[in-house]
Design brief:
alpha/beta, 20% helix, binds xanthosine-5'-monophosphate
């Protein structure tokens, strides 16, 4: 589902937010669809979710409550955007998963796919740990025509243009995660995330 980038203005967010890119009701509808597809992909009903902190937390909590599966939850913390950078850097693991991955069907959840380095790193760790299967799920996927070979997620909520987004778990300088919608920042609106 490609997202158009026409902004809905939202006065409650104040001057720093340029507008809402994806409103909460559209996220909710899309999560219902994503959940249906994920349930179909795991006919045995067993699933281990490995969530990348911190940006995926809101997406994660809304998604897993739509998944009536025998579900285990694990987390990993990977740094990719140090401090207030809007450019993706080489990620490194800050907090490792609990390690209960061998033989599990693992679904990695992240907030957004940009260069693919973060998901690629986590995917490699899960495969090396001996998981039975590995799939990936992101709320947002940035269009990166400049990276033709970039990995794709198995499940994607919304495809968006290459712009820096906040809200619904995503941050800038650790702020804005609590906004209920996916938004664009005023001073970064229209600027590529590099
Ligand atoms: P890569 O390049 O590794 O980047 O695919 C994915 C990670 O980078 C962060 N990221 C963002 N965070 N707004 C954010 O708040 C964005 O527009 C954005 N783009 C990338 C995010 O942590 C993700 O896990």
């Amino acid at each position: 589902m490609m997202e158009d980038s026409s902004l809905i203005s939202h006065e409650a967010y104040g001057a720093e937010i340029a507008g809402v890119l994806i409103p909460r009701h559209r996220i909710a509808v899309r999560l219902d669809e994503l959940a249906r597809r994920i349930i179909e992909a795991y006919p045995d009903g067993e699933l281990t979710i490995l969530a990348a902190l911190t940006g995926s937390l809101v997406f994660l909590s809304d998604l897993i409550r739509r998944l009536p599966l025998r579900l285990r939850l694990d987390v990993v913390r990977v740094s990719s955007y140090p401090h207030q950078a809007t450019a993706s850097r080489e990620p490194s693991v800050l907090i490792a998963s609990s390690g209960d991955l061998p033989g599990r069907h693992v679904l990695i959840i992240d907030d957004i796919l940009d260069t693919g380095r973060t998901l690629g790193l986590i995917r490699g760790l899960v495969l090396a740990a001996g998981a039975a299967s590995v799939r990936t799920c992101v709320l947002l996927s940035k269009r990166r025509d400049d990276l033709p070979g970039r990995m794709a997620a198995d499940f994607t909520g919304f495809d968006i243009d290459d712009q820096f987004v906040v809200g619904y778990g995503l941050d800038y300088g650790d702020l804005y995660r609590n906004l209920p919608d996916v938004c664009l920042l005023r001073d970064l609106a229209g600027r590529a995330g590099r």
